[in-house]
Every structure is written in structure tokens, then in C-alpha cells.
Amino acid sequence: MNQSVDLIVIGGGATGAGIALDAALRGLKVTLFEQNDFGEGTSSRSTKLVHGGVRYLEAAVKHLDLEQWKLVHEGLRERKTFLRNAAHLAHPIELITPLYKWYELPYVYAGLFLYDLISGRATLGRSRLLSAKTALKRNRAIDPDHLKGAVSYFDGAFNDARMVIALIQSAEAAGAHVHNHHAVTELVKDPEGRITGVRVHDTLAGTDTQYAATAVINATGPFTDTIRHLDDPDAPPLVETSSGIHIVLPARFLPSPLGVMIPKTSDGRLLFALPYQGHCLVGTTDQPAALDEHPPVTGEEVDFLLEHLNHYFALKATRDDILATFSGLRPLIASGDHGSTATLVRESEYITSPSGLLTVAGGKWTSYRAMAEKAIDCLLAAHPDLTQTHPCTTADTPVIGSRASREVVMKQLADQGLARQAEHLYAHYGDQSVFIEHHARSPNDLKPLLSDPPITRAEIRYTIQKEYVRKPLDFLVRRSGLGLVEREKALTLLPEVLELMNEELSWNRVSRKSMENEAKQLLSTSI
Ligand SMILES: Cc1cc2nc3c(=O)[nH]c(=O)nc-3n(C[C@H](O)[C@H](O)[C@H](O)COP(=O)(O)OP(=O)(O)OC[C@H]3O[C@@H](n4cnc5c(N)ncnc54)[C@H](O)[C@@H]3O)c2cc1C
């Protein structure tokens, strides 16, 4: 048994990483375990919007629902904090809603005007009513036929997979121990039935170890009930999973820095087309789905997105235009009677079981920080034997990467002779970009391996040494983001990544081959 810590966090997505950071900053001894890679679950497969929730606002108004109001208000407050504390990964984005019926203009504008009002000082810019001509000038993607006008509004956009790493690194810098590719397989209990630790399987080394802790938090997103059942096989289900897919199209489908919000799909939801990593990201769907580490993308869901997009976009897309697809599972709080998962409120829950397991479930990316704060407050209330040495400071703590200004970093990169890669490096690593040069073993390591994105060997080495890369897709999908937007290019880079990982991690021939096979298989099916 390892030395006991105050808190073990199970799950290294937005929720678990946020909790580990909050707890470590409050002076608790924390260890986090993630069964796959950090962010490999839902947290790298979102729409990548930092938002108050335009959808919840409509429900709040229509049903005079106070809970939905509170959700929007909290989301908008957290949006501002998020953008401030992760400035290298998150930025405001203007979105245009094209409207083809006159009566929709005042309705949609009134809703978005209300969104601004609730934002108050957290506003990112005022919503505006646009004529059809102005809308087309601002965003050429929109289908001009019968366009009556549009409404523009602002939200935030961010790189979700990189944000998990920034949180994990920040937690580690604050004293937390973090382990990816370590699955919690058992909750260890004392004779009174209180949890005293966990049993963990190192999925790469194949070893099992027991870790002791005063408290354990279950932050496993869609897997919430799997851990709850380790604690109590009769625990009622807390979470329902629904899948949401995204497709990625070439930039010619969205030749604008502005996104598009499609106000109503045939199943009554919103759809987004956003500029992302030089491409056009389109999503999402909402289908009840089974628990799966790599949920499949069905042809039906792809056609649903294409059909709606083509209704609103000038250039019509087909399946052949798609560069990549991915699916994520929403960890929605189960509510007894409901028709479809699209009507569930994305509320979060904090439940302490009789054995002391605190389960934190639901929520949305935007509110990860507020969820973490509530979780640690709950934990401390339930454990008088744990004391914080500092109050919660996450609202005022920039994440690793956002602690120096863009200007300073860009200048340093130019001084290092990395001007060509500077935009790419800053957008991924923020102020940590300046350390990448130190990981070059020869001048060759600083030459881009691809023309776009200009990834270098030094960057790959850096992520292995500093960003917990242990499998090829940890780099290809989540650190660089390449596999999320361009599958073919990710496959092209795979041999180079394997070679460097082999060098850095001293693999044997068998593990190299199995890493290669797994990466190829996931890149050709569901990442
Ligand atoms: C399609 C889609 C689009 C979305 N878009 C947005 C958006 O634009 N903006 C927004 O704010 N929110 C959005 N969300 C919601 C947001 O992505 C999620 O609420 C959030 O990512 C959930 O994070 P999580 O950490 O709870 O879950 P996850 O990211 O799934 O993390 C849980 C982790 O626990 C790990 N785990 C499970 N079992 C074990 C075990 N036994 N041992 C160790 N680790 C384990 C898993 O491997 C996983 O990595 C979207 C969600 C979906 C599905």
C-alpha cells in the first residue's frame, strides 16, 4: 500500500482535472487516476463552446423555469472566468444565426438580447440584428436563397483536449500526483464499510497497486454508475448517456472566422458550424447510446448533420468531403420520466454514499470550475478530518500556459527562430511553447514534419517528456488535435510518432507493434 493521501480522484476529464486542481490549490494531498489518456472521454469530444446555454435560455423563458435561469447565469459567469484563465486556449467567437422566415427575426433577437442582459458585465459583445446583405457579407457560408436576415451574438470557443492537459499540469504544479492509463478497479473498504482507498491497474505495465486515501471522488462522466456499482451493486442509476457526434469539413465550407448557429433541427435542437483548427466543425446530435470508451459514429447521425447543414449552407457537403468524425457521450443526470435526452437539464449532482464515496456527475465543460468548487466544498463538509490550508482560488488562477502574454511568447519564439511555428505552438502550449526548443536533439528536430500544422519532432518529444504522452494517439489526437480534424494526416504522421516514442520510452518490439495496431485501428474507426 502506498502512503495515504487526502483525496483520490477517479477520472481525468474536465470534472476530475478541475477537482484535482481545486483540491491541490486548497492544500489537500491529491492523486488522480485516469484509465485511458487525460481527456480521452467526453472532454475531448465536445462542441468546444464556452457558453451559458442559449438552449437552456429558451426553456427558461418558455417554461418559466428558475433552475434553467440559474444554469444560464452560472454558465455566463463561468464563461468569463474560463476565457480569462485559459487565454491561450479560449477566445470569444461571433456566431451568426441565419433566418429564412420574417417572424423568426424578432423571436431569435429577443432571446439573444436576453442572453446579453443576463451576461451583464460578463458580456463578450452585443447581439445584433443583421440584414440579409450584411449577414452574407460577414459570413459567405450561409445559403442566400430566401434569406430574410440574421442575428449575430457572442460566445466562447476553446480547445477542449488541450484544456484538460492545462488543468492536469496546473494540478500537478500545485502538488497533485496524476496518472493516465491507470484504471481504478476496486474500492477498498475498512470493516465498517468506509472507503479507505482504491486498487489501481496500470494498463501499460500490467501491474496492480493499492492506494490509501481519506476520501475518494468519482468523476468518471459517462462511467459514473460503473464506479457507483463498485461501491454498491444496488445503487440506482444516476447517469444516462446520449451520444453527440461531430463531423469535420474543409475550411472552404466555412470561409469566415465567424461561426454559424442553426436555430432548430428537426428534433428541436441547436446545431453549430464553427471554425476549428483551420477547418469547419459541425455538431452535434443527441441519441440515447450505450456506454463505450470509443463510441461509434453512425451513418445515420452523419446524414442528419449533412442534411441540416446543407439546408443552411451555400456550398453543399457530402460524405466524401468529411475529413474526420468523432462521437462523445453526454453524462446526463437521469430523470425518471422523459421523452428524449434532449429535454434533460444538464444539471450536476454531488452525492455522498454511506461508504463516503463522493460522486460528481453531469454538468458541462463551461462550468467545470464551479463544479469543482462545489465538489470540494461538499467533500470538506462530509470529512471534518480534512482541512484546507487555503480557500478556493481557482477563479483567480490562470492555468499553465496562460501565465505570460501572447506578445511576450510570440517574440520569444521568433527569437528562437520558430516564427513559422509560433501561431501553432502558442495556440496549443501557450507560454510553455518556449520550452519546446530545449527538447530538440538536433536542428532537424525543429523542422516541421508537415506543412500544416507545422508539427516538429521537438514538439512530439516535449509532449512525451512533459505532457504524459504514453500512446501514439495521446499525441496525435489530444495533444496536437490532428486526429480530431484530419484522420489521413494523423495516419501519415503515425510512423514518425512511433519512432520518437520508441526512442524516448524504450519500448520493446512487441509493445511497439501493439501500439501501432491500436492507433491504426482507432484512427480508422472511432477515436
Ligand atoms: C457531443 C457533446 C458536445 C458537448 N459540447 C459542449 C460544449 O460545447 N460546451 C460545454 O460546456 N460542454 C459541452 N459538452 C459537455 C461536456 O463535454 C461534458 O460535460 C464534460 O466533458 C464531462 O466531463 P467529465 O470529466 O465529467 O467526463 P469525461 O470527460 O468522460 O471524463 C471521465 C473520465 O473518467 C475516466 N474513467 C472512467 N472509469 C474510470 C476508472 N475506473 N478509473 C479511472 N478513470 C476512469 C474516463 O476514461 C474518462 O476519461 C458536450 C458533450 C457532448 C457529449
Describe this structure in words.
A hairpin with a 4-residue loop joins strand 9 (195-202) and strand 10 (207-218). This protein starts with a strand and ends with a helix. The chain is an alpha+beta fold and 527 residues long. The longest helix is centred in the N-terminal third of the chain and has 20 residues, at 66-85. Helix content is 36%, strand content 22%. It binds flavin-adenine dinucleotide (FAD). Flavin-adenine dinucleotide is lined by residues 10-16, 33-36, 40-43, 45-49, 51, 183-184, 219-223, 244, 284, 328-331, 363-366.
How many strand segments? 18
> Rg, please?
23 Å
CATH topology tier name of the largest domain: FAD/NAD(P)-binding domain
The N- to C-terminal Cα distance equals 35 Å
Tell me what portion of residues adopts beta-strand conformation.
15-25%
Number of helices: 16
Mean pLDDT: 94
Give every kind of bound small molecule, once each.
Answer: flavin-adenine dinucleotide
Task: Please name the CATH architecture of the largest domain.
Answer: 3-Layer(bba) Sandwich
The backbone outline, from C-alpha atoms, is: globular
- SS-based structural class? alpha+beta
Largest sheet: 10 strands, mixed
Number of domains: 3
The CATH top-level class label of the largest domain = Alpha Beta
Low-confidence stretches: 337-344
- The fourth-level CATH homologous superfamily of the largest domain is FAD/NAD(P)-binding domain
- What is the helix fraction of residues, given as a range? 25-40%
